[in-house]
């Protein structure tokens, strides 16, 4: 006679009961994550993945007004954020490890959704979590969580674009931005420059990084200088071309862009 029926039943039944005790309450909880709390009072944003940077839009942040930024998503602490995700080119994946799980960002008609809530102020780093080309590892962004009052102040500032420079190196840079074709790809609110190919640069002066996290946006403008002078050397195959600008022209454009905050 072989085996011990009682023991065999126990080692089958007990693990089954343990698994059931875990699965049964977990399944409703998992599905509940698809439905954000406080949906009526949530901040809604649109996220568009590009090779290799992120576009964030705040639709109807004020009646009939939309704010568009790149690679730096600003949100108020304690308020639910509902993000609608889509891609302009290939499949990406939106991931902020300390705030949410991963969600695919798919081109075409499919729009995925994710929600999160930053309970504490600070910077939360995000990445593309789906291989999307040679610069996939350099497709970074950050979520900056600030107090509700700071967020509202930021919104008011963004709805009032920086004034056009009237003189000096910044004025020269403003004019070069148009004459050298930068405005054909980039938007700067309140100016004739309304290109939609590359990132919106209206608040580039206040962003912490350049090129989706690849260079610091330092006070002296060295990061911006390197990026504008030769983006292909910094981030090969990025869609921004190397324009062959002189150092003096680059310095002037940097001086203008640093005023945009």
Please give a structural write-up:
By secondary structure, the protein is α+β, with helices and mostly antiparallel strands. The chain is built from six helices and twelve strands. The strands form three sheets. A five-stranded mixed β-sheet has the order 3-2-1-5-8, with no helix packed on it. Strands 4-10-9-6-7 form a five-stranded mixed β-sheet, covered by helices on one side. β11 and β12 form a beta hairpin. α3 packs across α6 (247-257) and α4 (222-229) crosses α6 (247-257). The protein starts with a helix and ends with a helix. The mean pLDDT is 91.
CATH architecture of the largest domain: Sandwich
Along the chain, the helix and strand elements come as HEEEEEEEEEEHHEEHHH
> What are the segments in which pLDDT stays under 50 over at least 5 consecutive residues?
none
Strand content: 25-35%
What is this structure's SSE topology?
Layout: H1 5-32, E1 43-50, E2 53-62, E3 65-70, E4 72-76, E5 81-87, E6 92-95, E7 103-105, E8 112-116, E9 122-128, E10 140-146, H2 148-158, H3 168-179, E11 209-210, E12 215-216, H4 222-229, H5 231-234, H6 247-257
Parallel strand pairs: 1-5, 4-10
Antiparallel strand pairs: 1-2, 2-3, 5-8, 6-7, 6-9, 9-10, 11-12
Helix pairs in contact: 3-6, 4-6
Tags for this entry?
261 residues; alpha+beta; Immunoglobulin-like; five-stranded mixed sheet; 12 strands; 25% strand; elongated
Could you give a quick summary of the protein structure above?
With 261 residues, this protein is an alpha+beta fold. The chain is 28% helix and 25% strand.
